[in-house]
Amino acid sequence: MKSQLTVLTALALCIGLLTSQPLLAHHSTAMYDMASPSTVTGTVTKFDWTNPHAFIYLDVKNEKGEIEHWEIEMMSLNHLKSYGWTHTTVKPGDVISCTGGRAKSGAPAMLSSVMKLADGRTIKS
What we know:
By secondary structure, the protein is α+β, with helices and mostly antiparallel strands. The chain has a single domain (about 30-125), classed as CATH 2.40.50.140. It is built from 2 helices and 6 strands; from the N terminus they run αβββαβββ. The chain has helices spanning about 1-25, 75-85, and strands at about 30-50, 55-60, 65-75, 95-105, 110-115, 120-125. A hairpin with a 6-residue loop joins strand 1 (about 30-50) and strand 2 (about 55-60). The N and C termini lie far apart (about 55 Å).
């Protein structure tokens, strides 16, 4: 009986470890170049105040003068609230600057670590 309980406990532990792996992968920043931060400035087109991460969408003028549509990923709402963010911190039409790690794929995407808002404030993101 005791050996059966030990086997069941070990099996439950293994299942728990195997099913928790996708949760760890969710928080990976491997797709972003966090070692070489850069800054983009553009006009907010949309602000998604959603879990598990908030997103800001920006229209950014590139070096050729063309508009690129950027997706800026931010932290969870709990983190953002602790930094002073609310669902009204930015709105469409605001011109902001985002600093963080660009997508390694070359896509117009970034994981932001800090932003300069339209009112001049700098805030963690």
